[in-house]
Specification:
By secondary structure, the chain is of the alpha+beta class. The protein has one domain (about 5-165). It is built from five helices and nine strands; from the N terminus they run αβαββαβααβββββ. The chain has a four-stranded antiparallel sheet with strand order 1-5-6-7. The protein has a three-stranded antiparallel sheet with strand order 2-9-4, with no helix packed on it. The protein has a two-stranded antiparallel sheet with strand order 3-8. The longest helix has 10 residues, at about 5-10. The radius of gyration is 16 Å and the shape is globular.
Amino acid sequence: MNFTESLNVALTTVSHFNPKKFPGMGKGWKFIPEEHDFRCPNVSITYCNSVRLLALLKKGETCIDGEERIERLKKSDKIRLTADWFLFFWKDLSLIPEEWKKVGTIFFDGDVLLAPDKGRHILSICWFGSEKDKVPYKWACFFRHLSENCFASTPSATFESSILSS
């Protein structure tokens, strides 16, 4: 199956992210509605090639925490990809662009989740492994606490705001 065929199959089975049913989360996890980026379009083949990775460090910074990253994204005109987009890529890893492997971790900041302990988290996918330790590389998902620092190589998945008018 080629990329376009795989993409079409994935799009016919798109579902909405449910933190209560996602492995590792479950009861007590929920969305923080006011943190949802309502500008983010629904998962669609029309938008798949328009995803852009954006790092938000200012000159001289080596890291910022997740709360600061979310605030900077909100102040920009960039559209933050939501949990549904995370789930779309997670359900069919072959749809993740090959160049994302060079980046490592990608944040999906369009939804913030509240854990049972009241910690604020976002979803991320990570190309993870180690040649030295003979751990094969594979995609993994993480729920990142927003108080954690992110580094220069850790971008957010975004759309240009102009995507809404195209």
